[in-house]
Amino acid sequence: MNATAQAAQALSAAPPVRTDAERTLLVKVFGKDRPGITAGLFDRLAGFDVEVIDIEQVVTRGRITLCALVTPPAAPGAEGALRVTVHRWAEELRLQAEIISGTGDNRARGEGRSHVTVLGSPLTAGAVAALTSRVSAAGGNIDRVFRLAKYPVTAVELTISGVPTEELRAVLAAEAAAQRVDVAVVRSGLHRRAKRLIVMDVDSTLIQDEVIELFAAHAGCEEQVAAVTEQAMRGELDFAESLRARVALLAGLDAGVTEKVRAEVRLTPGARTLIRTLKRLGYQVAIVSGGFTQVTDHLVERLGLDFAAANTLEVEDGKFTGRVTGEIVDRAGKARWLARFAERAGVPLEQTVAIGDGANDLDMLNAAGLGVAFNAKPVVREQADTAVNVPFLDTVLYLLGVTREEVEAADELDGTPTED
């Protein structure tokens, strides 16, 4: 057989290309869920030699909605028999069935696809109504909705098409603030699942404390240090200048208090769960801090982190001198360390996630592939890619498409409590 004949034979054997003008049947079944419903429906459809084009199924509080988009049977009169067969089967199981005739596959989804994660504690119907109304007003369509978590916050993910991601983020940001829910909008695509390095700020992010204030409490100057810290975090004071001013107040403090400060540090709820889950997924995890290596080195060992950078308090004769040594980790320094960590990890910047709360985190958040403002100051929330304002650090997993059920299932296999 020559090449032309072989090509002709291959074309004749290939399945026909489906067009939007072809008829289809949408078979919908809903009612009380039980094992065997999906198998039962397709067993009935199999008797009519139909092709399956699409399947969707959801179970909510024990109620199933199952949809199957199929081609109509080819035999004359078989479509009527199919309808009778499906309805009789559904009645036997006390289910409801609906069969809708139409043309074509599902409507093509629009361009500009985004994943929108909504976090609420609680998530009210009014908030959902307001946000989804904003989506439709912007010309977007909600293609799918999926619950990510029901505890300790309610988290749902919406897949939206038809409106550019940046435009959608701007539209939903103001509404989220008005409804007191968190909304994260990220562009859809493989890159969303390719994040392989997460870099976190430490003070008021990975931990609940400001480390310098813990040291200051032992030096008797906590109020003075806290006031300067707040100015720096709001962006009202240069960080390097504020660091030197605060550290100077520690001059003469016995360096032995470091062990006490380490014991006083409180991890943010969800921190261990976040890191443990990221490690299971193959991520590398780093911290970068305007605080001090006297504490961050301990956190690296305690949590099994991959990289860390922080300032170092100078010690002479067992006492702090009121100075720091080496390169100061300030706003620009955090961004530099993000790039260094990415290079060491062999990860491009677009596959990094940065998490922080203060103005000195902004360069890092903007340099990363995804910047997350965690319980952040207003100036940070406004400029970051997305903001999370619930007090649980592991909610960042939901922004990456990881569900609470997946986390709990992995913890159960390891015999590890999910809660910190």
Which geometry do the CA atoms define?
elongated
Low-confidence blocks of residues: none
Label the structural class: alpha/beta
Largest sheet: 7 strands, mixed
Strand order of the largest sheet: 12-11-10-9-13-14-15
Radius of gyration: 28 Å
Oligomer: single chain
Q: If you average the pLDDT, what whole number results?
A: 90
Number of helical segments?
16
Strand content: 25-35%
CATH class term of the largest domain: Alpha Beta
Tell me the count of domains. Answer: 3
Strands, total number = 15
Alpha carbon gap, first and last residue: 70 Å
Q: Give the second-level CATH assignment, the architecture of the largest domain.
A: 3-Layer(aba) Sandwich
The CATH superfamily of the largest domain is identified as: HAD superfamily/HAD-like
CATH topology type of the largest domain: Rossmann fold
Helix content: 25-40%
